[in-house]
Amino acid sequence: MTAIVGINGIGKSTLLRTLGKVQPPLSGEILVNKKPLEHYTPLALASEISVVLTEPIASKNLTVLELISLGRQPYTNWIGSLDEQDRHKIKAAISMVQLEALQHKKCYELSDGQLQKVMVARALAQDTSIILLDEPTSHLDLYHKVHILKLLKHIAHETKKTILYTTHEIEIAIQLCDKMLILEKDRSSFGEPCELIRQQSFERLFPSDTITFDPTSGSFKII
Ligand SMILES: Nc1ncnc2c1ncn2[C@@H]1O[C@H](COP(=O)(O)OP(=O)(O)OP(=O)(O)O)[C@@H](O)[C@H]1O
């Protein structure tokens, strides 16, 4: 599990959206399983990569169960009939994110945090080897942030999935992620959080007259 961090406007969402083929690359080339991203058909890509963006969903009139079921679209037939395996994956995703009690509610009835959990569950139901999430925990309280991220990390380790997410919650990412990508204006650093701490990469993120980084606790201090 890898977190992409960096100041506002540095390009975290742009990178994530480009990796998910939601927008074309500004430059360069992206290879997924050694194959250029542009060679994937939308259907082939949907069984390889799931993307959870920050935009509000258009289909809030669906129930939670219906929305999560849409994650199975790459695998269903042309009328979208769900088979036994689809139903199993959907049920497992609902259970992992603890949404059983909300599954028959309409999405417009949910809080922003509950909706974020639904979108994570939809990605889990899609069951791809790569999951990209743009600020997936921004509306969640501390407990639910940690719960979702620990769950994603567990899934990444158990099922060997790659989970890449953008976040401003750097201290949580330092504690939970296997790797981090720090985007800066003229450079980027990638590695294990402890290695990035050793390289003093977090010190450079914010102006030091306002915020400093304490490498011992792995946290930021306000001056
Ligand atoms: N590599 C790049 N080259 C040129 N422009 C870029 C690049 N990456 C991002 N941008 C532009 O910078 C702007 C901000 O990018 P983006 O929304 O990805 O930042 P962000 O790090 O996700 O910001 P925030 O933390 O505020 O959500 C966008 O207009 C985007 O098009």
Automatic annotation (TrEMBL):
GO terms for molecular function: ATP binding; ATP hydrolysis activity. Its main location: membrane. Residues 1-210 form the ABC transporter domain. Pfam families: ABC_tran (PF00005). It is a peripheral membrane protein. This is Iron complex transport system ATP-binding protein. It is found in: Cell membrane. One of its GO terms (cellular component) is plasma membrane. Keywords: ATP-binding, Cell membrane, Ion transport, Iron, Iron transport, Membrane, Nucleotide-binding, Transport. SUPFAM superfamilies: P-loop containing nucleoside triphosphate hydrolases. GO terms for biological process: iron ion transport.
